[in-house]
Amino acid sequence: MPGQYRFSFGPWNLHEGADPFGPPVRPTVAFAEKLGLYKRLGFDAVQFHDDDAVPELEELAPEEVAAKAGAMKSMLDGEGLVAEFVAPRLWEDPRGIDGGFTANDPACRRWAMDRFKRCVDIAHALDTRLTVLWLAREGTYIRESKNAIDAYEQLLEAINEILEYDRHVEVAIEPKPNEPMDLAYVPTIGHALALAERTVDSSRVGGLIETAHALLAGLDPSDEMAFALSMGKLWSVHLNDQNGLKFDQDKTFGAANLRAAYNQVRVLELADYAGTERFVGLDVKAMRTQPAGAAHKHLANSRAIFLKLVDKFRSFPIDFERQCIADHDYEELEMAVIRHLLGE
Ligand code: GLO
Ligand code: MG
Questions:
Q1: In the annotation, is 52 catalytic?
Q2: What lines the ligand 1 site, CB under 6 Å?
Q3: Structure confidence by residue, pLDDT tens digits, 240-265
Q4: How far, in Å, CA of 129 to CA of 84, rounded?
């Protein structure tokens, strides 16, 4: 019996529609209202930034942070939801302008480390072990501004320090090759998991793979996932889609390349990802043109497309696949895949 998929998204996936060339086009949806949407749309877990869980946490004393995180946990309980992970949002603070752990200013590096620890405390209060490191500004605009060898050591030290700070915390690194930086450190899951192996407890360091990020690195998302799955290190995914090499689009899963989406589902099925009880996260954004009352459809649609592709995988004529492979007739196999996806 294959496991049951459970889905998650972050509050940032219900957003105001601003882009670098224009202001918000939809009113902010209050957090409580967002929470109310999760179950309605078929989702069981919330992905948090630390300051989604505790807004303005930099202004608060540790006891206040703990109290607010506790209140958030009660809100989740009230909705029948769980927290999947908490991620330190280092990239929006002025101290994170040159990166956090790899900033050239030691005071900024200390701040980043401290902020990561606060994030772990919040994760603890929300009853999840998992934190996610999207290393947004850990990189450079120009190569000469940092020593990349030192940067990888700094990242390693930061992860080691957090593993020692909390004996249960898990860190999933979310690689991305660029944006907002010209070039980011840890651009692929290979980099992330190599770094993980060097930490003081590699069993607690894994990865989160986002479709669009793999595509931006010129790689196949399903093969990136396969690499992490082969090591037991795929601890979450950010499924979405991307139309070519441009800014990170966060399109609806499967909307740009349905066959590539099918192959991501296929690899998750082959590894019984659902059985690992990790969540299927959807890091998708509504189009800017979408009216306020309908700016949640991208989430329900992404989930529905995922489940339809699961059905496609499970109903694929497996004997025919085996025969094509035995005959080395991959042209025939490809046609069968296309026919199957077209519903023939
Ligand atoms: C941006 C990332 C971002 C992260 C989120 C969790 O490109 O995909 O959405 O996934 O901040 O850390
Ligand atoms: Mg993401």
A1: yes
A2: 87, 132, 134, 174, 176, 210, 238, 248, 283
A3: 999 999 999 999 999 999 999 999 99
A4: 9
User: 134 CA to middle of ligand 1, Å?
Assistant: 6
- pTM of the predicted structure, to 2 decimals: 0.97
pLDDT in tens, 271-319: 999 999 999 999 999 999 999 999 999 999 999 999 999 999 999 999 9
Work out whether strand 139-140 and strand 130-134 pair parallel, antiparallel, or are unpaired. unpaired
* Cβ neighbours for 165, distance < 8 A, ≥ 6 positions apart: 117, 120
Q: Tokens in use for 76?
A: 């989740």
Q: CA-to-CA distance for 199 and 156, rounded, in angstroms?
A: 6
In a domain, 263, yes or no: yes
Cβ contact 277:283 at 8 Å: no
Tokens of 71: 């209140």
**Mean per-residue pLDDT over the chain, rounded:** 98
How many CB atoms are closer than 10 A to CB 319? 8
pLDDT confidence of residue 3: 77
Q: How many Cβ atoms are within 10 Å of 255's Cβ, its own excluded?
A: 18
Number of domain units in the chain: 1
pLDDT, tens digit (0-9, with 9 covering 90-100), for 61-99: 999 999 999 999 999 999 999 999 999 999 999 999 999
Whether 172 contacts 210, CB under 8 Å: no
| Within a domain: 328 | no
Domain residue limits at 104: 7-314
Give the position, in ligand 1's atom list, of the atom nearest the Cα of 210: 8
> Is there a domain that residue 339 lies in?
no
| Residue 144: per-residue pLDDT | 98
Is 114 among the catalytic positions?
A: no
Quote the pLDDT of residue 304.
98
Residue 323 is assigned to a structural domain of this protein:
no
CATH code, domain carrying 188:
3.20.20.150
DSSP assignments along 204-250, one per residue: GEEEEEEHHHHHHTT--HHHHHHHHHHTT-EEEEEE-B--SSSS---
